[in-house]
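Tutorial, part two.
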Amino acid sequence: MEIAKTIQSLTTAEEMRNQTKLVMQPYANWEEYLTPAPLSIAILGELVFISSKKDFSINKNPPKDGYKYIRYPDSFRACLMQVCNSGWWAFNEAHKNMDQIRLHTMAVPDYMKTAVKILFQENDEVVEAHLPDQLENIRVIADDCLELANATEKRFTDVINIIQELLEACVNAEHFYGEELEAIKRKLDEAKMRKQSSEEATKRSEKAMKAMEEQLKEAHKSFNKAMDSLPSGWSMIGMDLVAGFTEGITAVVNGVTALFTEPVNLICNASRRIADTKHYIKGQESAVDGVDVINIYSKSAEILMCTVKVREFVQDNTINWKDLYDQKNKATLTDFHAGQFKRIKESLEKSPKCKAKIDAQSICDEGIAICAELAKYAPEGKCEEAKTKQLVERIRKLTESARSFDSKSKDVTNSPSLAPKPPMVYKEESKSGKMRASQRASENARFRIEQSRAQLDKTREIYEKSVENMEKNQKELTEILITMRNCEVKEIDFNTTIQMLVKGMDAMGRVKEQWEKMVRFFQMVSNIVKTSLSRTLKDFVSTSEKTQSLSYNAKLFSKDLLYNQAFQATNIASLVHMISATYTEVSTKHLMDRVSSLGKLMAMDKEKPAFLSERLQLQNSCDEAQKAILRLVLKNKNEFERKSAARLEKIDKELLAILPAAAPEEIKSIQAAVKSGFTEEEEGESGFTEEQEEADYA
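Running the prediction step on this input gives:
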């Protein structure tokens, strides 16, 4: 069928990787993380210069247990040099490790290609024997990168700890009075709060990993349960559900990735939504967090799938009773969907109470109620006209609610609107010629197109905001550089030095935050692969052949899950590859020369004129680096806009063009549902050869 084929060609692995990069661009906007780097280096250079001035001790009231980080409290000058030295090491390590991360992540897509080839083998023993090696290769890369990111993050933490302790020592040595003292104490408190929020983020990432594992466990259980309750001869219905399960896992992975990478200064959708959700919580303010909300929204694809299946029995404003009742098995076809709605509703029970949960459960309740009504009249195959009209209207409203909820889910989790069918499902359907032309296929395709449009528009808006924010930060940083430049030698007093240390602590804090995100990226990749190896692969091996009567069985479902996990891991790795390549390029062109110049400054004789000219050179080159980074950001923004426009154009040209005309009210209803999911309420048969198919999935 043409629509199914076109959707599949628009959602090949390559297309999906690019789509993920587009949707995640505002969150993984690495250039933004580079802006504090030139400033940090410039500040360190000024501190070297200042340290050539008068020396004094800050060891007046040392802590009881002595200093943890400062080595020479009797010499303020030596302390400043210690800060510069550790900063120099941090930037050196950042460059070296990021380059290694870039090289490591480059290899991941090849392992993914091989994994796909293996998954497409008919022989289960081949899969059992060879797939673990490919997944293991990806895991080893993730763990190596995790170590590199951890080591770099630790370097920046060291610099921050030294500056923090140095400021505390100055406070204790009573070098400040009145307002100044308060300002410094505020800054130190701020630094402690940053540390606390970083620890909370680590806890949240552990919770997210557990959630992902739970989701997989549940997918297997749900699949087996659904297949057991499926009347014979209804295998197509079961296969439609599978896409819902796999989309749910994608939503969790993407949602969590976005949660980890949100720029600190960008109040993104997810966090705003999470704040909204809290209005609905009585007496358990802290019970709901981003991971809970993502978990609830990850059910949207299954809910939509069940709703669409019920809607298929409505034709021309009446109910198709003949197809609704299976005379041979004496069963109403929608009973199966009622069971699925019940299962989804029960799976949400353990989530904390919030708006997303209330919305999802009320859609399930209405779905169950509609199915019960249909089951009442189905055996007779008729009911009075007024009742039919009312049921048709309820089914239409249910579809709108499910579409709106799915659009909200795409918005919160940053999952792609157009998702490919899992490879084994697609292969089975193509093989058996079951790619039937469902009357709803074009309607669903239209909904996905509208969703893609809204999603990319929203992403563009968020990206716009993030670039605006960046330009604002850039201005602040440039002003700091100018202030530093204007400090004449004789004017540089103790206060100026302290202000610079505070700015340095801030700038280093921002750089460190980005490395923390890197750490979480690789923790995720590593965890996804470990779960594939430990849970999904074990399930694959231990599944008996009892479901062999179905063409699509639990073994094939495990294969689809394995594919989905490997693909998600590759997706994150390719996102990180994009980030690390940008960092390495900028660092090579604009940072490393400054870092070596800093090393040179530290080793020079402060009395020689060459010292002053080196300082001037460092100042100017940091200025230049700042401007170059801004140019790069604007270039990337233009490219992003070009790519997102091209993606929409491609969808319109290839998919919209082959859809039959739709009734205006249908189009309006779809647009309204999508819009409500993407806006805040308070303020929307196959002609592939196997090789082609593998290539698309690799």
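Residues 118 and 126 are 7 Å apart (CA to CA). In part three we will examine how such features are distributed along the chain.
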